[in-house]
Amino acid sequence: MAGFVPGRDRFTIEALHPDEERRLRTLESEERQATLDKNELAELEREQTGSGRTIDTSLYETSLALLSSQLASYAATGDAPGRHGSAFPLIAPYEVFPTSDGSLMIVAGSDGLYERLRGAVGLPDDERFRTNPDRVRNRAALADLLSERLRTRTSAEWESELTAAGVPVSPLRDVGEAFEHEQTRALGILQQLGDGTTVSPPFSVDGERVRHRNPPPRLGDYDAADDD
Hints:
Number of helices: 11
CATH class of the largest domain: Alpha Beta
Order of helices and strands: HHHHEEHHHHEHHEEEEH
Number of strands: 7
Strand content: 5-15%
Largest sheet: 3 strands, antiparallel
CATH topology of the largest domain: formyl-coa transferase, domain 3
Structural class: mainly alpha
């Protein structure tokens, strides 16, 4: 699990075919609109017209939405994207790298961020990596150089160094580490519910964490009601 510190630079999609770029921008706009809570939309409709709306969704549609950039790439080129592991196919470097004692997720999503990363880890200037299209074309070579360099120090050391340089970075954490992390505690997202602990909905309203109201029923809880 990884979290990222937003950088000031915005990455460009200059490596894309113009048709693919247009499709991506359209999809991004549609996704932003879709982030409106469906219950709020239904409530708004009811207030305006006196009747609500039926909103349908499915796991299949959700999966397609998560593949928006890959589907846009296929629509533009006809080539089905392959597996990229932790990497993002349109940006480099944007993936997990090994350190001497673990792994780090590093996101250098612009030329400016890459220059900060290069300076922080001590990589020489190389014409193969000067722009994002260059780095995408030479992804494997760049990953090898970064991996070799990052293996020389610990995750904590590199996280401190890269954060100071303004490079988005985070160590990979297992579920236990994420559970115990101070940010998880500060968010107040963990909720005691019944006999166990669960995760509250991932949003707050007016600064207040939304909570589950009731624990799930246990086996037999509704047997008496069913008999009636």
